[in-house]
Amino acid sequence: MGGSKVRRYGSTGRTRTMCLEALGVVKVATPDQIRRLMCPGTKDAATVRGGLKDLEAEKLVISPGSAVRVNAAGVRVTEKLWTLTTAGLDAAAVILDRPAREMGGTAKAAAASGAKHARAVTNVLAAFLQTPPELTQPPVRKHQFVPAPPAEEPAEEPSVRAEGLGPLAAWSTEIALPVGGTFLSPARGSLRADMVFASPGHETVPLLFVEVDNGTEGPPIVADKVARYRRFFARRVPAGTGTGLEVPLWRTVWPDSPRDGYPPVALVFTKDMGEEAMLARMREIGSLAREHWRGEWMADGYAPEGEKPDGYRDYTGTIPLLATTLRRLAAHGPHGPVWWRYGHKTWQSLTDALDNPDDYRAYSVREEARRQAEQAERDRKNREYEARRRALEAAKWTCPICQCSVYPDDDLTPGGECRPCLNYRRSQPPVPEQPPTRGGLFGRRRRT
Fold it and tell me: What's this model's pTM, rounded to 2 decimal places?
């Protein structure tokens, strides 16, 4: 990012393009925030400041306000806030390849008031992007002596960063979500998503809505935002095919969700507070918004003796609601174990947090396992039956009385009568024995 002899502040075309691209997405930011978004490998924000000042000379950006932050050394630092002009919005739309009507406003009023929330959104976006640092050098100003760094003290080395969720062009901020009216003229009760990530075909999350929580709103207000998200997702409009069919309004703008339920919504808490206080706030919001993320339990009504009835949770019409803190997100990246999915029991990666282990897919796997186990038991019993049958066939004999086949039995003698013949013989009265008679030549005549 060496300097240029054409521009007064020595910025390059690449630097100015980065500034326009960043402000086209976040609308308002300080030079240091733009540096962390776009070129974290630079030693300081001098490169970005030069680009912004050159863009200001071209009437593409302005600085209508300033903000105060505390740096790593605990020192309060005042920085200018920059935003785009109307001409700058058009230039950024070309860079981002977006229609100018989708670029929103210039955020001049927000910058003039310090843009506290907008700056928090930019910090969250930087944590999501995890832009890899690149070795760069600040621009060399004309008539300015810049000593070369000693050989043993090289320029700042890029650090290893977690995998991010990008690119920047896939993100948008301050997007209207109309529960009534249109995107350009939303009805009362609509809301604005702080951030939206839309990347059709993304393996993990093709669509993600993000709400940045500064801790200034009570849990009921945050829970109400979740309810309004659900109202927006549930809104349907004519498909425009002439068939009378309707489609969800959000599907006319963004890619479909690959999982049950509506697109996921992530809450990112930026206020520094104790771990217990943060968890208490997260739990309260989750409890107030339970009906919007919980899903309905569908029991199958069947349970083997001694077991609980099985079933699954139907997430149709519910929101996968996730939560994390800016500190966790910045430290481990969006794919790290930083997400608390309401309804789950532990911190998880983004992939695991978006999964529904208790939905119909999981139930169908268990049901198939039970079906296979029952089939295996039937097959086992059939094999045992066939084995017994073959053994009986091998051991059978022919009844000497009726000539029928006889199978082994505890009461039968091998080779003897069959049971019917044996029972018949046993049922007959015994024949009395006749005493012997003496007749004939030497017999004695009976008396009469």
Answer: 0.78
